[in-house]
């Protein structure tokens, strides 16, 4: 009825829901990019890492999507707080990047 009265059509392009694995992969890619650039993972809590879309052409004529923003500082802070719940593989992925697990107050 709304479609007829208001001329609305259903949006065919719905956002794709990401699985936990997809989110982890995105966050890990952001951590890897930050580590490659800075040489550490001591990321300020408010830092946002911008990721270029994978496998897409870049440049003005490439039609590339916008960079994806990952709140990396917040992600890593939350991971540290829940470190005991990480799988061995995820912990190993972050250890390979030199993840600092204890906060400054906790390290003695």
Short synopsis of the structure:
With 108 residues, the protein is mainly alpha-helical. The chain has 4 helices and 2 strands. The chain has helices at 2-6, 20-38, 72-81, 88-95, and strands at residues 49-51, 68-70.
Describe this structure in words.
- 39% of the residues lie in helices and 6% in strands.
- It is mainly alpha-helical and 108 residues long.
- The model has no long low-confidence stretch (mean pLDDT 82).
List SSEs in N-to-C order.
HHEEHH
Number of helices: 4
Give the CA-CA distance, first to last residue. Answer: 66 Å
Rounded to an integer, what's the Rg over CA atoms? 19 Å
| Class by SSE composition | mainly alpha
Element layout with pairings:
Blueprint: H1 2-6, H2 20-38, E1 49-51, E2 68-70, H3 72-81, H4 88-95
Antiparallel strand pairs: 1-2
Key descriptive features of the protein:
108 residues, mainly alpha
């Amino acid at each position: 009825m709304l479609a007829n009265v208001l001329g609305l059509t259903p949006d065919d392009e719905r956002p794709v829901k990401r699985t936990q694995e997809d989110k982890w992969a995105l966050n890990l890619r952001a951590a890897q990019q930050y580590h490659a650039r800075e040489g550490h993972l001591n990321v300020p809590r408010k830092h946002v890492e911008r990721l270029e879309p994978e496998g897409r052409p870049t440049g003005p004529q490439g039609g590339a999507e916008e960079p994806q923003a990952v709140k990396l500082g917040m992600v890593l802070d939350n991971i540290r707080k829940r470190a005991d719940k990480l799988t061995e593989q995820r912990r190993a992925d972050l250890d390979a990047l030199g993840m600092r697990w204890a906060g400054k107050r906790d390290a003695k």
